[in-house]
Specification:
By secondary structure, this protein is mainly beta. About 0% of the residues lie in helices and about 20% in strands. The strands form two sheets. Strands 1, 3, 5, 6, 7, 8, 9, 10 and 11 form a nine-stranded parallel β-sheet that branches. The protein has a two-stranded parallel ribbon with strand order 2-4.
Length: about 190
């Protein structure tokens, strides 16, 4: 369903598609998306909503078995990371090219299986110290092209499985000696 002119999806549109593995709704004009469409979905699937005009992403109180969620290139000002606990099996979350400024987790347990988190090209100024504590299985984190002025050791200490970390094109002024000390599996670091 990609590269159409879809603006709105009616409730229960995908209710009968229980075995759906991949849904590609990219390159449309969707402004609002609700996970209520998948309340009856029982198998693992990938959802691609990239290159739309989504301003609001609504959660449901149901558990979803989703492996990948792509919201790249939308108009999101806010994403509630605390609700990721409803996503069982989520390995990849792409929020690149949105308008995110703040990252929040309200001490709730979120999906700990995420291995890839892309937050590049947003407007993130501050990275909360305990934000990454909920992403302890991360292997790839992309934070390039934000407005980060500082990333400390305490922020990165929880992601000791990380292999790829990009902090390029931010406003970093200095890097303390211990900043990357616990990242023993790190293979690629970009701070250009």
């Amino acid at each position: 369903l990609s590269k159409n002119q879809i603006e709105f999806i009616e409730n229960n549109t995908f209710k009968s598609n229980h075995n759906l593995k991949h849904l590609n709704l990219s390159f449309n004009s969707i402004k609002f998306f609700s996970l209520v469409h998948f309340n009856y979905h029982t198998t693992s699937f990938d959802l691609d909503l990239s290159h739309n005009k989504i301003e609001y992403f609504e959660y449901s109180n149901e558990v979803f078995i989703m492996t990948s969620l792509n919201l790249e290139n939308n108009l999101l000002n806010f994403f509630d990371f605390a609700n990721l606990g409803y996503f069982h099996g989520l390995n990849s979350l792409n929020l690149c090219k949105n308008r995110l400024k703040n990252l929040n987790v309200n001490n709730q347990i979120i999906s700990n299986k995420i291995k890839y988190l892309n937050l590049c090209q947003n407007q993130i100024i501050f990275f909360p110290q305990f934000f990454l504590a909920f992403f302890y299985n991360l292997e790839k984190l992309d934070l390039d092209s934000n407005q980060l002025g500082f990333v400390g050791r305490a922020t990165l200490t929880y992601i000791n499985k990380i292999r790829y970390l990009s902090l390029s094109s931010n406003k970093l002024r200095r890097i303390l000696p211990q900043t990357f000390e616990n990242l023993n599996h790190l293979l690629e670091l970009d701070i250009s």
